[in-house]
Design goal:
five-stranded mixed sheet; seven-stranded mixed sheet; alpha/beta; pyruvate-formate lyase- activating enzyme; 17 strands
Length: 317
Amino acid sequence: MIIYLEKQYKNNKIVKNILSYYKNARVLEIDNYKNIFDKNIRWKIEDILILAWVNNAIIKAPKNYWFDTEWYFVKNSLNCIYNCKYCYLKWAFKNNIKVIFVNYNTIKKQIIDIVRDNKNKKITFYTSDYSDNLAIDNLTNFTLEFIPFFWSLTNNINMEIRTKSINISNLLLLTITDNVEISFSVNPNIVIKKYEKKTPSLKLRIEAINKLLLKWWNIWLRFSPLLWVNNYKEIYLDFIKEIKKQIDINKINSFFVWWLLYTKKDYNKLLLKESDLDLLYKLKYSNGFYRNVDKENKWFYNMFKKEIWETYFKCLD
């Protein structure tokens, strides 16, 4: 294991926690993480981690990204420990080296500045656009740092943590807060095994969800992405039956469904890296995007409205 560390932050508490976890790691001090991260690295990237400082951690979401709120992405880490074959992170950066930004106080200040500049507006901060924060929470203590922080803000300021991880031990230590939601991405096991490499099984995700529901956490279920696999109707109907059997959906805060959607540029980039990904060849180009054809979208949409709960159903295209 090689850890590149921006030398001016070697006394940071997050850095110390990570170095205590990787006791036998080779630590190399650097001036700026981009000197490594911006290169086309060819060696085994699973054995490399960068600990660094981020200056601009908050990024405004595109217009109309969601409904009655303003959205911001929080860039506190880069690249994911999972290897979902369809994921946009495969072409987002020059390599897949994992980066953890350790200047939490700076990130918090930037959030406070946005809240102050948007007084009385409803704002949601999404904290897992560039990696799965929950999956590395034992290293970063992200939840222990940021959930109490969001609890201290006004009620119309929310944080959503999207995840496929079952690493919930820190969450079970915390007191819940109404303005934090944990969004679990779920899919049929056949999809998980084939397309979501290294991620927990559906059974383990359901167990984690139920543990958090017992503690009254706000839970979203994200059926995302819906994949147009062979026998998809039978597979997804059985999957929904299993979800309804194992989870009390009356306790779920909200539901969300979404299918694959790529710009032409992003589609071509992914095609270069995942040329054997059968899903890509089933998508059709329409209105500026590669996506499922309309009849599959409609079937998924209608099935979820019927099988889950139309009141809470939301769909983003």
